[in-house]
Recover the amino acids of this structure.
Protein backbone atom coordinates (compact mmCIF):
# COMPACT_ATOMS: atom_id res chain seq x y z
CA UNK A 1 0.00 0.00 0.00
CA UNK A 2 0.86 3.67 -0.08
CA UNK A 3 3.32 5.08 2.46
CA UNK A 4 3.62 8.83 3.04
CA UNK A 5 6.49 10.34 4.99
CA UNK A 6 6.33 13.95 6.18
CA UNK A 7 9.10 16.26 7.42
CA UNK A 8 9.77 18.08 9.60
CA UNK A 9 7.62 17.04 12.54
CA UNK A 10 7.89 20.52 14.05
CA UNK A 11 8.73 23.85 12.46
CA UNK A 12 9.13 27.24 14.08
CA UNK A 13 9.41 30.41 11.99
CA UNK A 14 9.27 34.13 12.59
CA UNK A 15 6.22 36.01 11.42
CA UNK A 16 6.73 37.10 7.83
CA UNK A 17 9.15 34.30 6.98
CA UNK A 18 8.34 31.41 4.67
CA UNK A 19 7.65 27.84 5.76
CA UNK A 20 8.13 24.68 3.74
CA UNK A 21 6.83 21.21 4.61
CA UNK A 22 7.87 18.21 2.54
CA UNK A 23 6.28 14.82 1.89
CA UNK A 24 7.37 11.77 -0.03
CA UNK A 25 5.13 8.96 -1.23
CA UNK A 26 5.86 5.40 -2.30
CA UNK A 27 3.14 4.44 -4.78
CA UNK A 28 3.85 5.78 -8.25
CA UNK A 29 0.14 5.35 -9.05
CA UNK A 30 -0.80 8.12 -6.63
CA UNK A 31 -2.50 10.95 -8.46
CA UNK A 32 -4.11 13.15 -5.81
CA UNK A 33 -2.24 15.07 -3.09
CA UNK A 34 -4.18 17.19 -0.60
CA UNK A 35 -2.95 19.23 2.34
CA UNK A 36 -5.01 19.61 5.50
CA UNK A 37 -4.65 22.14 8.33
CA UNK A 38 -5.70 21.25 11.86
CA UNK A 39 -6.18 24.09 14.31
CA UNK A 40 -6.14 23.43 18.02
CA UNK A 41 -9.21 21.54 19.18
CA UNK A 42 -10.64 21.12 15.69
CA UNK A 43 -10.74 18.56 12.92
CA UNK A 44 -8.47 18.88 9.89
CA UNK A 45 -9.62 21.10 7.03
CA UNK A 46 -8.52 20.98 3.40
CA UNK A 47 -6.45 24.02 2.41
CA UNK A 48 -5.08 23.07 -1.00
CA UNK A 49 -4.69 20.04 -3.22
CA UNK A 50 -2.93 19.09 -6.43
CA UNK A 51 -3.35 16.38 -9.02
CA UNK A 52 -0.57 14.52 -10.77
CA UNK A 53 -1.12 16.29 -14.09
CA UNK A 54 -0.09 19.61 -12.52
CA UNK A 55 3.34 20.59 -11.20
CA UNK A 56 2.39 23.56 -9.06
CA UNK A 57 -0.71 25.21 -7.66
CA UNK A 58 -1.06 28.50 -5.78
CA UNK A 59 -3.75 30.01 -3.62
CA UNK A 60 -2.77 33.38 -2.20
CA UNK A 61 0.06 32.75 0.30
CA UNK A 62 -0.08 28.97 -0.07
CA UNK A 63 1.45 26.89 -2.84
CA UNK A 64 2.00 23.20 -3.44
CA UNK A 65 4.61 21.72 -5.75
CA UNK A 66 4.77 18.17 -7.05
CA UNK A 67 7.72 16.23 -8.43
CA UNK A 68 6.36 12.95 -9.81
CA UNK A 69 9.76 11.63 -10.80
CA UNK A 70 11.12 11.96 -7.29
CA UNK A 71 7.72 11.17 -5.74
CA UNK A 72 7.65 14.12 -3.44
CA UNK A 73 5.46 17.15 -2.92
CA UNK A 74 5.77 20.23 -0.75
CA UNK A 75 3.64 22.88 0.89
CA UNK A 76 4.97 26.44 0.79
CA UNK A 77 3.54 29.19 2.98
CA UNK A 78 4.84 32.70 2.36
CA UNK A 79 4.59 35.74 4.63
CA UNK A 80 3.57 33.58 7.57
CA UNK A 81 1.17 34.96 10.14
CA UNK A 82 0.39 33.81 13.70
CA UNK A 83 -2.91 32.35 12.49
CA UNK A 84 -0.93 29.94 10.29
CA UNK A 85 0.15 28.17 13.49
CA UNK A 86 -1.40 24.70 13.33
CA UNK A 87 -0.69 21.07 12.49
CA UNK A 88 -0.44 20.38 8.76
CA UNK A 89 -1.00 16.97 7.16
CA UNK A 90 -0.14 15.88 3.67
CA UNK A 91 -1.87 12.91 2.05
CA UNK A 92 -1.81 10.86 -1.12
CA UNK A 93 -4.31 8.67 -2.96
CA UNK A 94 -3.35 6.16 -5.64
CA UNK A 95 -5.55 5.93 -8.71
CA UNK A 96 -8.04 3.12 -8.27
CA UNK A 97 -7.84 3.14 -4.51
CA UNK A 98 -10.65 4.48 -2.41
CA UNK A 99 -8.90 6.06 0.56
CA UNK A 100 -6.25 8.63 1.41
CA UNK A 101 -3.01 7.84 3.22
CA UNK A 102 -1.93 10.66 5.51
CA UNK A 103 1.52 11.74 6.61
CA UNK A 104 2.45 12.01 10.27
CA UNK A 105 1.87 15.77 10.50
CA UNK A 106 3.95 18.91 11.00
CA UNK A 107 3.35 21.28 13.88
CA UNK A 108 4.03 24.80 12.58
CA UNK A 109 4.51 27.59 15.06
CA UNK A 110 4.73 31.17 13.81
CA UNK A 111 6.44 33.42 16.32
CA UNK A 112 5.10 37.01 16.38
CA UNK B 1 -17.25 21.64 10.73
CA UNK B 2 -20.71 22.00 12.28
CA UNK B 3 -22.19 19.81 9.52
CA UNK B 4 -20.36 16.79 10.94
CA UNK B 5 -21.02 16.10 14.60
CA UNK B 6 -19.46 13.54 16.91
CA UNK B 7 -20.69 12.28 20.26
CA UNK B 8 -19.38 12.13 22.85
CA UNK B 9 -16.63 14.73 22.61
CA UNK B 10 -14.74 13.24 25.52
CA UNK B 11 -14.95 9.81 27.10
CA UNK B 12 -13.03 8.04 29.82
CA UNK B 13 -13.59 4.33 30.17
CA UNK B 14 -11.98 1.24 31.63
CA UNK B 15 -10.22 -1.68 30.02
CA UNK B 16 -12.65 -4.30 28.75
CA UNK B 17 -15.65 -2.00 28.39
CA UNK B 18 -17.60 -1.71 25.14
CA UNK B 19 -17.63 1.80 23.74
CA UNK B 20 -19.56 3.35 20.88
CA UNK B 21 -18.62 6.62 19.19
CA UNK B 22 -21.25 8.19 17.01
CA UNK B 23 -21.04 10.40 13.96
CA UNK B 24 -23.84 12.26 12.21
CA UNK B 25 -23.70 14.52 9.17
CA UNK B 26 -26.10 16.90 7.50
CA UNK B 27 -24.01 17.40 4.35
CA UNK B 28 -25.86 14.71 2.39
CA UNK B 29 -22.59 12.94 1.63
CA UNK B 30 -22.49 9.27 0.76
CA UNK B 31 -18.98 8.56 2.02
CA UNK B 32 -18.02 8.41 5.66
CA UNK B 33 -14.75 7.56 7.43
CA UNK B 34 -13.34 6.89 10.87
CA UNK B 35 -9.75 7.86 11.70
CA UNK B 36 -7.66 7.83 14.83
CA UNK B 37 -4.98 10.41 15.56
CA UNK B 38 -1.97 9.66 17.72
CA UNK B 39 0.98 11.99 18.34
CA UNK B 40 3.66 11.46 15.70
CA UNK B 41 1.53 9.01 13.73
CA UNK B 42 -0.82 11.31 11.92
CA UNK B 43 -4.28 10.20 10.88
CA UNK B 44 -4.80 6.49 10.36
CA UNK B 45 -7.89 5.08 8.71
CA UNK B 46 -9.92 2.59 10.73
CA UNK B 47 -13.00 1.96 8.54
CA UNK B 48 -14.79 3.65 5.70
CA UNK B 49 -18.16 3.36 4.01
CA UNK B 50 -19.14 4.61 0.56
CA UNK B 51 -22.84 3.95 1.03
CA UNK B 52 -25.17 2.28 3.51
CA UNK B 53 -24.40 -1.23 2.25
CA UNK B 54 -20.67 -0.70 1.81
CA UNK B 55 -18.24 -1.21 4.71
CA UNK B 56 -14.48 -1.43 4.25
CA UNK B 57 -11.57 -2.00 6.59
CA UNK B 58 -8.85 0.59 6.77
CA UNK B 59 -5.24 0.13 7.82
CA UNK B 60 -5.94 -0.39 11.54
CA UNK B 61 -9.34 -2.07 11.87
CA UNK B 62 -8.40 -4.73 14.45
CA UNK B 63 -10.31 -4.23 17.69
CA UNK B 64 -12.90 -1.97 16.05
CA UNK B 65 -16.23 -2.45 14.29
CA UNK B 66 -18.59 -0.05 12.56
CA UNK B 67 -22.23 0.31 11.68
CA UNK B 68 -23.69 2.50 8.95
CA UNK B 69 -27.23 2.94 10.25
CA UNK B 70 -28.25 5.43 7.58
CA UNK B 71 -26.65 7.68 5.01
CA UNK B 72 -26.15 10.29 7.71
CA UNK B 73 -24.95 8.08 10.57
CA UNK B 74 -21.78 6.05 11.01
CA UNK B 75 -20.86 4.57 14.39
CA UNK B 76 -17.55 3.17 15.61
CA UNK B 77 -17.46 0.53 18.33
CA UNK B 78 -14.64 -0.75 20.48
CA UNK B 79 -15.82 -4.20 21.53
CA UNK B 80 -13.43 -4.51 24.45
CA UNK B 81 -11.44 -1.33 24.98
CA UNK B 82 -7.72 -1.50 25.77
CA UNK B 83 -5.34 1.28 26.87
CA UNK B 84 -3.54 1.53 23.51
CA UNK B 85 -6.85 2.58 21.96
CA UNK B 86 -6.50 5.84 23.85
CA UNK B 87 -6.49 8.42 21.06
CA UNK B 88 -8.34 11.22 19.33
CA UNK B 89 -10.97 9.83 16.94
CA UNK B 90 -12.27 11.69 13.92
CA UNK B 91 -15.21 11.06 11.67
CA UNK B 92 -15.11 12.50 8.16
CA UNK B 93 -17.39 12.67 5.13
CA UNK B 94 -16.91 13.22 1.43
CA UNK B 95 -18.95 13.13 -1.73
CA UNK B 96 -18.27 12.36 -5.34
CA UNK B 97 -18.88 15.47 -7.36
CA UNK B 98 -18.81 15.80 -11.06
CA UNK B 99 -16.44 18.72 -10.84
CA UNK B 100 -14.24 20.50 -8.38
CA UNK B 101 -12.44 18.89 -5.49
CA UNK B 102 -14.23 15.59 -5.51
CA UNK B 103 -11.99 14.06 -2.88
CA UNK B 104 -12.28 16.69 -0.14
CA UNK B 105 -13.02 15.23 3.25
CA UNK B 106 -14.91 17.18 5.91
CA UNK B 107 -13.93 16.30 9.45
CA UNK B 108 -15.91 16.40 12.64
CA UNK B 109 -14.52 18.00 15.82
CA UNK B 110 -13.16 14.73 17.20
CA UNK B 111 -13.75 12.51 20.21
CA UNK B 112 -11.02 12.22 22.80
CA UNK B 113 -11.11 8.69 24.22
CA UNK B 114 -9.11 7.59 27.24
CA UNK B 115 -8.98 3.92 28.21
CA UNK B 116 -7.70 3.30 31.73
Amino acid sequence: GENVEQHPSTLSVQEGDSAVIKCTYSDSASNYFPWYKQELGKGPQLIIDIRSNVGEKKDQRIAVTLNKTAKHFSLHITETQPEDSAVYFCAAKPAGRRALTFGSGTRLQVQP
Amino acid sequence: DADVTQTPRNRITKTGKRIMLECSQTKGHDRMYWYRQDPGLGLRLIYYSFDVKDINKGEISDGYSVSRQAQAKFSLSLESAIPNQTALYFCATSDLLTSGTNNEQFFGPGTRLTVL
Q: What stands out?
A: The two ends of chain A are 41 Å apart (CA to CA).
